[in-house]
Amino acid sequence: DQQVKQNSPSLSVQEGRISILNCDYTNSMFDYFLWYKKYPAEGPTFLISISSIKDKNEDGRFTVFLNKSAKHLSLHIVPSQPGDSAVYFCAAISSGSARQLTFGSGTQLTVLP
Amino acid sequence: EPEVTQTPSHQVTQMGQEVILRCVPISNHLYFYWYRQILGQKVEFLVSFYNNEISEKSEIFDDQFSVERPDGSNFTLKIRSTKLEDSAMYFCASSGNRGTDSFFGQGTRLTVV
C-alpha cells in the first residue's frame, strides 16, 4: 500500500542547475508534508515542510510546491550544489492520527560538479 | 542545536536474544517515535508514544516489541526475541509539535545473526 510514492529512484543534475524531486500521494487525509535528506548511515535530516492549506513554501535554496488537486508535491533546489547529493525522502502526516510520518521510497540525487 | 541521540550505533545479536535500543529525544519534545528501514526499503513507522503511552502502532509492532520511557529522558525500544528479519536500521524521532517538526536520531543498525 504505497500511500506516498516517489517514482524516480535517481536523478542527476549539473551543479548550479535546478533539481526537481517529485512525490505523489493517494491518501486524502494527509494534511502536512515534509522533505528529508538522508546520507548513508545517518538519520533523515529535516529540510522543509508544507501544510495542506498552502501551495508553496520557500526556505533559501529549497522550495516545496503542493498541488492538492493532483495529490502531488515537488521539491525544487536551486542552485544545486555537490553537497546536496543524498537521498531525498518525501513524507506525509495524516490528520487525526498520532502524527506519524508515512515515507516515500526516496530519490537519490547526484549533483555533478 | 538540540538533537536526538541513539545508542548503540551498531548492535549485533544472535537470533532469539533480546535487544534494547536506546534514544534520548530532544528535551522539550512530547511526541516520540520509532521507525525502521530494512536495507533497500522504505522508512517504516513502528510506534508512537505520547503522554507515557503508546498512541499508535503499526502491524510490524507485534508482541515482540515494546517501548518505554523509564526516566523522563530515555526512550527505549525492546525486541524480546529477535528474528533474522528484524535486521534493519532503527530510527528514533521526537517532535514538539505533533509530528510536524519530527527530528531523527542517527539510527542504530541492528544485525541479527
Strand content of chain A: over 45%
Helicity range of chain A: under 10%
Spatial shape of chain A: globular
Number of strands of chain A: 11
Mean pLDDT of chain B: 93
Shape of chain B: globular
Find the biggest chain interface: A-B, 24 and 28 residues
Which structural category do the helix and sheet elements of chain B fall into?
mainly beta
Oligomerization: heterodimer
Amount of helix of chain B? under 10%
Q: What gap, in angstroms, lies between the N and C termini of chain B?
A: 37 Å
Sheet with the most strands, sense and barrel status of chain A: 6 strands, mixed
The topology string of helices and strands of chain B comes to EEEEEEEEEEE
What's the rounded overall pLDDT mean of chain A? 94
| Uncertain stretches of chain B | none
Radius of gyration of chain B, CA atoms, in whole angstroms: 13 Å
Distance between the termini of chain A: 38 Å
Assess the beta-strand content of chain B as a share of residues. over 45%
DSSP helical segment count of chain B: 0
The tally of beta strands of chain B, per DSSP, is 11
